[in-house]
Amino acid sequence: MKLLAKTSRILLGYAIVVLLVSIPLFYFVIEQLYYQDVDDALRLRKKELTIRTKKLHRERDIALWLAMDNDVKISLSAPPLRDSIYPKLYMDTLAHEMEPYRELATSLQVNHKLYHATIRRSLVESQDLIVGIAEVQGVLLIIMFIGWLLISRSISKKIWQPFDRIIEWLQNYQVDKEQPLINPVSGIVEFDQLNRVVNELVSKNKKAYQDQKNFIENASHEMQTPVAILQSKLDLLIQSKGLTAEQAHHLQSSYEVIERLTHLNQSLLLLSKIENQQFPDLVEVSVKATVTKILKHLEALIDDKPVSLNVEHHGDKMLHGHPVLVEILLSNLITNAVHHTPANGHIYISITDDGFLIENSGTPLPFDDNKLFSRFGKKSTNRHGVGLGLAIAFEISQLYQLKLNYQFKEHIHQFSIRF
Amino acid sequence: MKVLIVEDEPELSASIVSYLLNEKYQCDTAEDFMQAENKIIDFNYDCVIVDIGLPGGNGLDLIRLVKRMKKNEGIIVISANGALSDKIIGLNLGADDYLAKPFHLSELIARLNAIIRRRNFNGAEVFEHNELRVQVEDKLVFVHDKAIVLNKKELDLLLFLITNRRRVISKSAISQHLSQNESGYYRGYDVVYAHMKNLKRKLADAGCRDYIKTIYGVGYKLDCDEAIS
């Protein structure tokens, strides 16, 4: 749920509650106010009656006077009454329905006689008024709320813009690419702070990445010379007269270790160079020609193993890239297949206009599929490989925006590149 | 043949010297830029082996010096930096070859021989041993004066053995030599075994005796002592 939707929803709930409570409350309050007003009027009327009736002396005058005012009734009464005001319904003789009234019951002294008087006042108009006012109030509240919603929505969009920018920037952020930092000024303290923190984090991250990369490069580099010395010493040692089988065996092991070290160094350097995009000279490289070249090199090996090889061309693709990298990509996949195909197994290669596919027979992977393309993700059982070949292939395919996929089914390993 | 080895690592320099001695080569060494500069100016060599990163200067400037002086030395660059761009810069300056560290001494001598051959023999070099005759530059192989057909890799392998004929070459060196100039990241000796098997078979089929000796699984040696005629 979006932040705006969440806050709006909570506020909407609150507004509805307020609206539901406020309309009857409002009605009630206005009603009370009005009643007070009416009651004051009734008391005023009583005072007026008291004053006016003082001038009446005859019973007939009183009757006549009373007949003039429909809202006042007087009757003889024995004990004096305390003033009381109460609501009462009366039948409207014209409309034939009960109508609400406020009534004041009191005692009046006329001609030394105590009368019981009731003075009433219709509430019909007031009720319509109160309902009307409550309605207007309700409508106003609703309009205010909708307005608030729209305004907050449009303001929020503007206010959250820097936030959206940061999110978008972070989504596109890649630690190995050179990118400008985000503009840290948005005018809103919280976002500026976020910007600053993100920038700091990214800078630290970038530095750590850079340091690590430099370390790998330097380490790989600096190792070349000692390895060269070691290898040259072995080249001399192997010349020794009277070399025994055991010594030769130790020598061979040392050669293999040096070779692995060299290969490891080269692979790490190659990986960091690919990541640094140090292969800028892009040309059109034919996939078909490259594959043919690689297969020619591996010919003796394939014949010797023996492995049956089936190559199908249904077209060709000119890849826009560095010829060395394209060759490494394809040769890593092909040598990988040759290496892992058991004797008398088969390899199938297909080249079409939009894809390269290589399949080889074999047993399932002894590790998780998704570790296949990761560096050192798999424990290599092969003494000669260092487990970086597929990682390099993957890195190159990433660089040239090719889709490199792997799947295994029915004892067939399949790698495919979609151009 | 005089060779100047410009390398600041004395151990590596000593190994190269040791490997090149007992050969047709006389070696001289320089450990820093100044020494190298002086020796290049003062003496004449057939080939200079130059490391790029040197105390006191850049090996590339030594190549420039040789070219400026219009001297006829062959130049092999050896560098810890195997980057393609560095290779291109070195070769563009006029170096004859480029070897990235670490390299096998057998590979260095093969490259050295190739340069000397190009400069001095004009392609006339011939290796002869009993029934086997190889015209190195023409890439022709004869057994009992009958030409035999070898593919490129097998020929490469035979020439590599011939170049290093007084020494044992490790499988590892052969593997690297055969896959040079190829970005193929295939490691392992299967390729070596396959080509070696084919080469031996072709020679044997033509009636050549087996001069290629296997040394305890660590390497091979071409077993003959005939000099180049």
Automatic annotation (TrEMBL), chain A:
Its GO CC terms are: plasma membrane
Q: Which residues form the Histidine kinase domain?
A: 218-419
SMART domains hit by this protein? HATPase_c, HisKA
InterPro entries given in the database record: HATPase_C_sf (IPR036890), HATPase_dom (IPR003594), His_kinase_dom (IPR005467), HisK_dim/P_dom (IPR003661), HisK_dim/P_sf (IPR036097), TCS_sensor_his_kinase (IPR050428)
EC number of this enzyme: 2.7.13.3
Q: Please give one Gene Ontology molecular function term for this protein.
A: phosphorelay sensor kinase activity
- The source's domain of life comes to Bacteria
Q: Which reaction does it catalyse?
A: ATP + protein L-histidine = ADP + protein N-phospho-L-histidine
Spans traversing the lipid bilayer: 12-30, 129-151
Signal sequence segment = none
Keywords linked to the UniProt accession: Kinase, Membrane, Phosphoprotein, Transferase, Transmembrane, Transmembrane helix
Q: Which PANTHER family match?
A: SENSOR HISTIDINE KINASE TRCS, SENSOR HISTIDINE KINASE YKOH
Name listed for the protein in its UniProt record = histidine kinase
- The organism named in the record is Mucilaginibacter robiniae
Automatic annotation (TrEMBL), chain B:
* Response regulatory domain boundaries: 2-116
What UniProt keywords are attached to this protein's entry?
A: DNA-binding, Phosphoprotein, Transcription, Transcription regulation, Two-component regulatory system
Limits of the OmpR/PhoB-type domain: 124-224
A Pfam entry, by short name: Response_reg
GO cellular-component term (any): protein-DNA complex
MF terms in GO? phosphorelay response regulator activity; transcription cis-regulatory region binding
- Biological process GO terms, please? regulation of DNA-templated transcription
Q: Which InterPro entries match?
A: CheY-like_superfamily, OmpR/PhoB-type_DNA-bd, Sig_transdc_resp-reg_receiver, WalR-like, WH-like_DNA-bd_sf
- What is the species of this protein? Mucilaginibacter robiniae
DNA-binding region positions on the chain: 124-224
Which residues does the record list as 4-aspartylphosphate (modified residue)?
A: D51
List the coiled-coil residues.
none
In Swiss-Prot or TrEMBL terms, this protein is called Response regulator transcription factor
